[in-house]
Amino acid sequence: MTDGDLPWVVENEGELHAFPWTHGNFTDSLTAGYSAWVMRRQEERIAYAVMLTVIDEAHLLNISVARHAQRGGVGGVLLHHLFGEALRLGCSQFFLEVRPSNDAALALYHRHGFAAVGRRKRYYPAPDGQREDAIVMRRDL
User: Fold this and answer.
1) Which residues cross the membrane (predicted)?
2) Global confidence as pTM
3) Which residues are catalytic?
4) Ordered structural domains, the chain, with CATH
């Protein structure tokens, strides 16, 4: 992911999520040196991800697939790319948080070897001012 990708990333983020990351969130991730990727099919951007690595742990901060590319295995391909990058950077574990209401993401993560290891209470903003828990998931690399 580069600064040139950000207009597309931010536009898709707004279309895909009720509480999207801002342009500033993505810029800060790039400035901080997080591993940030845009996946293309030929020249067309179809997905993106941001991953933070700390010592021997990788943390998935954001992964999103453009609506027109969903349900075709793109998320799994991008996840496997991130697993490879995390291994290359010396990580042995991969963590993420996911909304309990996000059935598609939960199914994807289970298919790719993640297991629930905890819960963060009131982690995500939710409609009508409420907060939604996050399921913390982990996978060995």
Assistant:
1) none
2) 0.94
3) 97, 109
4) 3-140 (3.40.630.30)
